[in-house]
């Protein structure tokens, strides 16, 4: 099982963008098939654009292609606020074409209090309504 752990390294926006690019499947739908867990805890640079880019890369695209190997994502203390939590919904909700990420089963979002109660509630609701409900664990 392959793991990337970049906890407390201050990867910043450019680091998140690079990870997003590496994890985005190519036009043929081929992606890094061995990455199972991604630990980005304590990479809080208060710039949600990086988290948004990463989450968008992991969510299904308009033709249903996404990284199908990632099971565990730790975004503890990464500065997620409203925009970041809205991006996280892409991982949990079906696309307009009905595609949904069925691989992810653990999402750790501890110490992201700036996302607010309403956004936490929306994420929990999306997990409950997920086609794989019960298999997705979200930690706040």
Describe the structure.
- With 140 residues, the chain is α/β, with parallel strands linked by helices.
- Helix content is 34%, strand content 13%.
- The chain has helices spanning 12-23, 48-58, 82-92, 116-129; strands at 2-5, 35-39, 72-74, 106-108, 137-139.
- It has a five-stranded parallel β-sheet with strand order 1-2-3-4-5, covered by helices on one side.
- Strand 4, helix 4 and strand 5 form a beta-alpha-beta unit.
- Its main location: cytoplasm.
- It is found in: Cytoplasm, Cytoskeleton, Cilium axoneme.
- Keywords: GTPase activation, Leucine-rich repeat, Repeat.
- The CATH topology annotation reads as Leucine-rich repeat, LRR (right-handed beta-alpha superhelix)
String of helices and strands: EHEHEHEHE
- At CATH level 2, the architecture is Alpha-Beta Horseshoe
**Structural class of the secondary structure composition?**
alpha/beta
The geometry reads as globular
Query: Which consecutive residue ranges, at least 5 long each, have pLDDT under 50?
Result: none
Strand residues, percent:
5-15%
Count every helix, treating DSSP H or I runs of 4 or more residues as helices.
4
Mean pLDDT comes to: 84
- Into which percent range does the helicity of residues fall? 25-40%
Largest sheet: 5 strands, parallel
- Biggest sheet: strands side by side, in what order? 1-2-3-4-5
Would you count the extended β strands for me? 5
From the N-terminal CA to the C-terminal CA, the straight-line distance is: 25 Å
Q: What is the number of independent domains?
A: 1
What is the rounded Rg?
A: 14 Å
Main location: cytoplasm
GO biological process, one term: nucleocytoplasmic transport
Subcellular location: Cytoplasm, Cytoskeleton, Cilium axoneme
Pfam family, one: LRR_6
């Amino acid at each position: 099982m392959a793991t990337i752990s970049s906890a407390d390294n201050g990867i910043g926006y450019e680091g998140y963008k690079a990870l997003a690019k590496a994890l985005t499947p190519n036009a043929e739908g081929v992606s890094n098939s061995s990455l199972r867990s991604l630990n980005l805890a304590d990479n809080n640079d208060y710039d949600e654009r990086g988290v948004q880019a990463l989450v968008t890369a992991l969510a299904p695209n308009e033709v249903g292609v996404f990284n199908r190997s990632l099971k565990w994502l730790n975004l503890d203390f990464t500065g997620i606020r409203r925009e970041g939590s809205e991006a996280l919904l892409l991982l949990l909700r079906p696309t307009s074409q009905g595609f949904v990420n069925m691989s992810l089963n653990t999402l750790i979002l501890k110490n992201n209090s700036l996302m607010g109660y309403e956004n936490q509630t929306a994420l929990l609701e999306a997990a409950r309504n997920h086609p794989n409900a019960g298999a997705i664990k979200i930690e706040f």
